[in-house]
Amino acid sequence: MAVQALVVHGAGDLRLEERPLEPSTGPVVVRVAYGGICGSDLHYVAEGRVGAFALREPLVLGHEVVGTVEADPTGSAAPGTPVAIHPATADGTCAACRSGAPNVCVAGRYLGSAATLPHTQGGFAERIAVRADQLRPLPDGLPLVRAVLAEPLAVALHAITRAGGVAGRRVLVTGAGPIGLLAARAAVALGAASVTVTDLLERPLAAARALGATHAVRLPGEAVEPESADVVLEASGAPAAVSAAVFAAARHGVVVQIGMVPGEARPVALAPLIAKEVALLGSFRFDRELDDAIALLARDGGFHGVVSHVLPLGEAAAAFALAADPAASSKVVLELAGG
Question: For 309, which of 48, 176, 211, 318 is 20 to 30 Å away at the CA?
């Protein structure tokens, strides 16, 4: 079976082409309805790499995908079942997996990733074949176009878990891109005492206000008070934001780094971290939080405000251009085979 898929061949070389469905990746065929464009997808198209992971062969992009089961020879899901797809495959044997942290598996694979060779082909295709254990059936009443936020919301929820939760705590989210907006809405939904969001642009800050943020601060003209946040979720990935996050953290506060910072060394002001005994933690992808994200999306329709544009697969170039412009978009979603 041939399917239409969105394939990156190198920096600036994005093609819509027919490719064979590859059942070797798993026996369950899912008709993909929607796929969210992620920052890693943008990097592969703009630069031909994400950090150290460079393209060495054509790659079908996409790991934020939802759809309906078309065929499941394992019998785990009936045809027509709406599902989200867990994009990760861990080896199950490394020290990280044995300790219950498969999201940092040393040999982990991820849909739409060039981290390994052969690359792990992604989900921006009319149909994909996956393992039965990757399926996450969706609750009745959860629209697929909102459910497509499950994967990035799981990233935000994992960061909140790393912070020890947000209920009753003052939360600062730095960077109002899609992950930052989802983290802000999640903090609101999970009972944070207050949620402050910072960004350089007015449009994402307006989106943060609409999602329930208590305060929206536009940098650099406005400022965040020192020691004003019990939890800082750093979602911008800007090296300067790490120093600012430590500055804003309260004594015995916690800073969780979600945004992917550059790979080379950059200066960070850590003296306040020592004096205030601030915990600085990394956060990478997620594991069981995908199930939590689906449940939260089902009960809170407000998350849909993170989706700013839905474009058909045939307009992928325009969709990627929109997604790369934070002044014009938040989460841009591709409609792959209809929802």
Answer: 48
